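Run log // design_07
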């Protein structure tokens, strides 16, 4: 039986996955499934994949079905740079305005709604799909957000990680390594543990030599960004799932419940050694 891993082909996830590229024969018992966080959210809940560094909201959407890596997440030291609201108006003026929402991440959509509705007291008109003329703002994530940063087409842009930390004094957790309990079987557990150790090794190797790691990653998943912009991006990202970040995640779930976006605040369960 193979372990099915949801791989996100965004720059933010390069440290998780770069070291596996070209070494697939060493992990013959692992299948990688490429897709954005939203697809892996669906896959985890449907049982088509076993684990992924998926949108953190996924954990709350099917309570009791998952455990989390106790050590790894996708967070930021202050700004995340790759989850941003781009706007033609100041954020305080977006009440009743058209805000286009990305379909790639449920966590980012949920976070933006919490910020706009709870922090700023706004009720915009949320629209699905790609940005159109007549929209007042749009939420972009991942490489699309990083590329939009370089275009400078909008009068205002807001980093959602910064907005959350400024408000709550906690770093936001955009992604968590979510593991389906179906993978916690005698058949899959040895592969799962080996895979998670290899993922930590991949992160460590990225930190030691990011240039070589990015050469490998960009050969598979190219982006239209200057190399210095790409390399500086990782100064904002932190992959350690600290106690502070776990508290932040629980607080995020509470606000999502308050807005009726999830049914309950789940108990955080973790993969044990």
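design_07 sequence
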């Amino acid at each position: 039986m193979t372990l099915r891993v949801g791989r996100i082909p965004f720059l933010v996830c390069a440290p998780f996955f770069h070291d596996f590229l070209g070494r697939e024969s060493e992990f013959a018992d692992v299948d990688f499934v490429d897709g954005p966080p939203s697809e892996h959210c669906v896959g985890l809940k449907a049982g088509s994949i076993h684990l992924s560094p998926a949108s953190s909201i996924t954990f709350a959407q099917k309570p009791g079905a998952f455990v989390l890596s106790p050590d790894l997440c996708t967070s930021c030291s202050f700004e995340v740079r790759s989850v941003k609201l781009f706007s033609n108006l100041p954020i305080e003026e977006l009440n009743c305005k058209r805000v286009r929402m990305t379909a790639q991440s449920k966590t980012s959509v949920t976070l933006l709604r919490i910020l706009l509705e709870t922090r700023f007291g706004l009720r915009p008109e949320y629209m699905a799909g790609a940005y159109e003329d007549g929209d007042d703002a749009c939420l972009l994530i991942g490489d699309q957000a990083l590329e939009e940063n370089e275009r400078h087409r909008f009068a205002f842009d807001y980093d959602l990680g910064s907005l959350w930390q400024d408000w709550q004094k906690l770093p936001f957790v955009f992604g968590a390594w979510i593991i389906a309990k179906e993978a916690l079987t005698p058949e899959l557990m040895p592969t799962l543990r080996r895979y998670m150790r290899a993922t930590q090794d991949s992160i460590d190797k990225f930190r030691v030599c990011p240039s070589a790691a990015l050469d490998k990653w960009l050969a598979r998943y190219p982006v239209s960004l200057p190399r210095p912009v790409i390399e500086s991006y990782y100064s904002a990202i932190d992959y350690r799932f600290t106690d502070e970040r776990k508290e932040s995640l629980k607080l995020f779930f509470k606000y999502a419940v308050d807005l009726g976006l999830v049914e309950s605040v789940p108990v955080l369960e973790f993969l044990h050694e």
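The chain is about 40% helix and 20% strand.
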